[in-house]
From TrEMBL:
InterPro entries assigned to the protein according to its UniProt record, in alphabetical order: RecD2-like_HHH
Pfam families in the cross-refs: HHH_RecD2
Name assigned to this protein: ATP-dependent RecD2 DNA helicase-like helix-hairpin-helix domain-containing protein
Domain ATP-dependent RecD2 DNA helicase-like helix-hairpin-helix intervals: 143-229
UniProt source species: Victivallis lenta
Amino acid sequence: MKTIEAKIIQILWPRLGVDNPRSWYRLECQTETGTMICTGTIKWRPTENELLKLTGDFEVWKGQQCFKFAEARPNVPENPRAQLSYVVERTRGMGPATEAAIWDSLGDGWRKLSPKEAEALKIRPDVYEIFKQQLDSLVRDKEKCDAISYLIGRGCSNALACAAWEAWETDAVGIVNSDCYRLADLSGFGFADVDGKVRLSYDIGDEDPRRIKAAIIYAMRQLTGSGSTVISWVELVQKLGELKINLQLAQAAVGNMFDDFTLRGFAGEEMVALGFHYNAETEILNYLGGKHE
């Protein structure tokens, strides 16, 4: 697979407002080899003039070379002048001459451009407001880029890192550093996505309490995925065995999870339920009981 740098010229599909459940995009991009159609999945809604790093393969479609990417990451320039250029390109009403004037006036301090300074440079107030919005977007893109890069460095796949950003934004790194198994809660991912390079990067051993608890919750979600909300202890033990979890430690962890109501047990029947399933069904029963009174 190859990695290319691309700037979005136009989003060809989907149009703004069109439902896109697969997060699949068809983009017209500027690359080092010229204008090219790039297609693939992006976990966020990209914008025109956004810079991306795309990883995938070149292919031919209708006689034209295209790039089909499997991974997309934000690509924010590091150099202050390049960052100014990036913001100006995304600001309607600004061009190279304005960019040069801002740089000549403020240099590395261009981010602090004030309304008065903008007026002196003959920048219209409405254009100045767009400029400030794009500056905020640059800061946000840089935070996103740094967070995704950090999580990939921790062993996350690009898709998992992007999903973490989409779910938790600027809190993503802190949440994952606190308990990397929170990643298993993200839609489309699970215990197995964390229980490899990610947990090893945090020096989490096989018998770490965080791993045991995450495995129990994952196993319960897998076993209740078909619709049943109550699972036999035998089924849970079997599933944990498949995950190579120490069953003695798991039994102790289940006891703690009963105490904090993460799990609910039915001692006489040796059955167990997830706490939120138990609470939901209790509320339904209470509601139905109240209607019959």
